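Chapter summary example: a protein plus 4'-deoxy-4'-aminopyridoxal-5'-phosphate.
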Amino acid sequence: MTRLEATDVLAGKPSSFDVSRVRLDFPALSQIVNGSPVAYLDNAASTQKPTSVIETVTAAYTFNYSNVHRGVHTLSQRATEAYEGARETARQFLGAPLVEEIVFVRGTTEGINLVAQSYLRPRLEPGDEVLISGLEHHSNIVPWQMVCQQTGANLRVVPINAKGEIDLDAYKDALSRRTRLVAMSHISNALGTVNPVQMIVELAQQRGIPTLIDGAQAAPHLALDVATLGCDFYTVSGHKVFGPTGIGVLYGRLDRLNEMEPYQGGGEMIRSVTFESTEYASPPHKFEAGTPHIAGAIGLGAAMDYLTELGIDTIGAYETDLLRYATQCLGRLPEVRLIGTADDKAAVISFLLEDIHAHDVGTILDQEGIAVRVGHHCAQPVMDYFQVSSTARASFAFYNTAQEVDRLVGGIKNVLEVFGR
Ligand code: PMP
């Protein structure tokens, strides 16, 4: 069955999204791996890069490279223009009102640590609470644990239900006068659950509690609009949105950024320095100590331009069809146990095959060129909740096809056969 036939059947409509053409933009997708065309189904871990991003990064190093901000010479001016241009691109991509609200960081992890140390740490007192959910990636757990240890505050966790959804009643109950910050993911990387972040933010806001949304998994699939969402902080990783590694964005509302002290000092983040004292630069530069990842930021801008050109809503609709198709196909195999069956899901299928170890599943699939991730997905508490140590996870991007889903199903059948099931 071709992709169009499969999705047409499922969606009841022809898809206007030309996936074959789009795949040509990604050189990595035309590779042969272990004798078969690669089926890259590990997009929640990291995404492949379109030629436009690769060429933009190459050009940044080949023709327009120098350090940014301080140079009077032409190459430095070109690099600065491209770097700051990428910041404006990121502002538009996130729907942030002001370019000063866009801080370049290494990725979601660094964005969260920045907020934990610069915003939260000076504001936490013993007995205060930081509220997260049972669905979080380790990078939205450990930085809060660290800041709680440093201050005597407590980490409080909103439970999830058997489908892998945040328990909203428990969330409402957990919001208290001691809550100093709510930090939750937009989409779970382990299960694909799309969290009701608008409601989560509104409920916190009604009590005057600031919010951070971990958007690492949402940015590649959903149109972002942080202004409408109303959160105080939002974090994104470049490598998950078809951009370079080592670069990401922290959106912070300007009044919040203004009231925060930087947690790293150095060049680039100052207005003036004497041995006695330092006057910091204004946001966002105040939080970007040292030479930044110049080419990375420029490449991230190219990736965001690429996604915007494709149309996030268009790719989101296509991915929804693909996920529905994959869920139905895997659901027909009685040996498959789906982990995470939220009503609102995006792009991720976590599963187990009876008692076969997920690592064996991943290894056998790899022999056919099918790339899935196996393990705890940096979300051990989620695994604990479902009483499993690991899962196999197929995670989709807009360049994946129904044929690749069919290959995954065939590969799963092979695994079952190898294990005599
Ligand atoms: N949060 C979520 C939901 C994620 O999926 C990831 C990456 N797997 C992160 C945070 C951390 O992102 P990074 O490693 O790019 O900093």
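Key point: The chain has two domains: 5-30+311-416, 54-309.
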